[in-house]
Write a structure and sequence with these properties.
Layout lengths: L2 H14 L9 H4 L7 E8 L3 E15 L2 E7 L13 E9 L2 E9 L23 H6 L7 E2 L7 E6 L5 E13 L8 E12 L10 E8 L3 E9 L7 E9 L20 E8 L3 E15 L2 E10 L2 E12 L2 E13 L22 H6 L15 E3 L5 H6 L2 E14 L2 E13 L8 E8 L3 E9 L4 E6 L2
Antiparallel strand pairs: 1-2, 1-12, 2-3, 3-4, 4-5, 5-6, 7-8, 8-9, 9-10, 10-11, 11-12, 13-14, 13-23, 14-15, 15-16, 16-17, 18-19, 19-20, 20-21, 21-22, 22-23
């Protein structure tokens, strides 16, 4: 059996035992089985000094949508504690957990009015879940939750509250629901409401601690208004849910505005002189980014841009635009189903990295994760590639741009009729940096090498 035959056989064998890369959806961050229960206690340093206990249950669940119900009735609250009964609805999406609806009795009359007028106001902060969704209904929690993640949100009855939300890392936290400290993912939100009678109360800084397998376990809202401004706090008193070991929050391909990387890539047969190209992440919005590329040196002059998005189904290349004037003659690529002027070309390291199928990486990369191509869909129409990718381990890799501890992703690719679009590709990704090295042993015997220069 020849080299190309071995590649085909390996791809077929792996695909026959294909296991998809696991995606940690909002179900893991906020479980909602029919019997799930939580009990929270919240208080406000000015408007509700007596703690308010709320019992929370799952009212209904269907597919990726679920509704929770809460009540203060029968929870042994003080006589002067606010009464609150309501529901809050959520939906799991590939962008994270979003709030789709809510309802409750009116807020206490002595709380600030969070609308421009007193009558008919649908805004309230008098419950644990109103604290949670205030200003950030879509999403309440963005996913995947990785280092550097940030997102914008809106909320309130008329989308009159805005927020900027940032994941700031993990923290050991102790709440009454657990006998000892648990690891929580910490999200900080800056909230702004303008035009309401009580808009200082509707503005401020909120921190939510999320525990994997349980949901939110603590919320602290520092309202605007100076040193005497109210502070509202909610903590989880009890639950029948059990915390799970959280996924790694390492970000192996940061979509961060201003991030720069310069690569040198060669092919030992077609591009021996090599080219150097510089990438800049110049636009980012809610987990979607645009990278521009320009040539630095070498026999290829390139200008282009690449769009990427990071969701619970992984890091996906959405679009590619690149033009090049080249003295190097690289072999043509397929698929044969497309006319020659519609087929991809290898002009940059990102072309080598994204070729074949999505995702480039799963949402939470872990050693052993495996994913593969499909014989239908957008990627197959664009590339016509069969194959699979697997995270085979971690490795310390040294390149001109530095020494990095990286995860190693190995891909077997077969593009029928096109040996240059086939072969074995190995890519190294470093946390906080992205791609640092790539080695592609093509089906025609040539080898392409990419290394981070700076």
């Amino acid at each position: 059996m020849g080299r190309r035959g071995r590649i085909l056989a390996a791809a077929a064998a792996c695909l026959s035992a294909f296991v998809a890369a696991p995606a940690a959806l909002a179900d893991d961050w906020f479980p909602h089985s029919a019997d799930a229960t939580w009990a929270y206690e919240w208080s406000d340093s000015v408007y509700s000094k007596s703690p308010v206990k709320e019992k929370v249950t799952v009212k209904e669940a269907s597919g990726r949508s679920f509704t929770l119900a809460w009540t203060t009735v029968g929870q042994d609250n003080a006589a002067d504690a606010p009464t609150s009964v309501g529901t809050v609805a959520f939906q799991e999406t590939t962008a994270g957990l979003i709030n789709t609806d809510w309802s409750s009795n009116p807020p206490p009359t002595d709380f600030p009015v969070l609308c421009p007028q007193i009558g008919g106001c649908n805004n309230s902060l008098a419950s644990t879940f109103y604290l949670l969704i205030w200003g950030s209904r879509g999403p309440v929690l963005a996913e995947p939750l990785l280092q550097g993640a940030s997102w914008a949100g809106t909320g309130g009855g008329s989308n009159d509250v805005t927020s900027t939300n940032t994941y700031v890392g993990t923290e050991k936290i102790t709440v009454p629901a657990f006998t000892g400290p648990v690891t929580a993912f910490k999200v900080r939100s800056e909230l702004t409401q303008a035009g309401a009678l009580g808009d200082p109360y509707g503005s401020g800084v909120r921190i939510v601690w999320w525990v994997y397998g349980v949901g939110p376990v603590k919320i602290e809202f520092d309202h605007a208004g100076g040193s005497e401004a109210p502070i509202t706090t909610a903590v989880l008193d009890s639950t029948n849910q059990t915390s799970k070991p959280p996924p790694s929050d390492a970000n192996y391909f940061p979509l961060k505005q201003g991030l720069k990387a310069t690569y040198r890539w060669t092919n030992d047969r077609y591009l021996k002189r090599g080219v150097v190209e510089a990438f800049t992440c110049d636009q980012v919005a809610n987990g979607t980014a645009r990278f521009s590329v320009k040539s630095v040196s070498g026999p290829m002059r390139v200008a282009g841009a690449y769009g990427f998005t990071l969701r619970t189904d992984g890091l996906t290349n959405l679009w590619t635009y690149a033009k090049a004037a080249s003295l190097a003659k690289l072999p043509l690529l397929g698929p044969s189903a497309l006319p020659a002027d519609k087929r991809r070309r290898f002009f940059t390291p990102f072309d080598l990295m994204t070729f074949g199928f999505n995702p480039i990486l799963p949402a939470y990369p872990a050693v052993g994760a495996t994913w593969g191509s499909k014989p239908t869909g957008r990627d197959f129409q664009v590339f016509g590639v069969n194959g699979y990718s697997k995270i085979v381990g971690t490795e310390t890799v040294k390149v001109p741009g530095g020494t990095f501890k990286a995860i190693v992703v190995r891909s077997a690719l077969t593009q029928p009729g096109f040996k240059f679009g086939s072969g074995t590709r190995t890519a190294w990704f470093a946390a906080g940096k992205g791609l640092v090295k790539l080695l592609w042993r093509h089906g025609d015997g040539s080898v392409s090498t990419v290394e981070l220069v700076k």
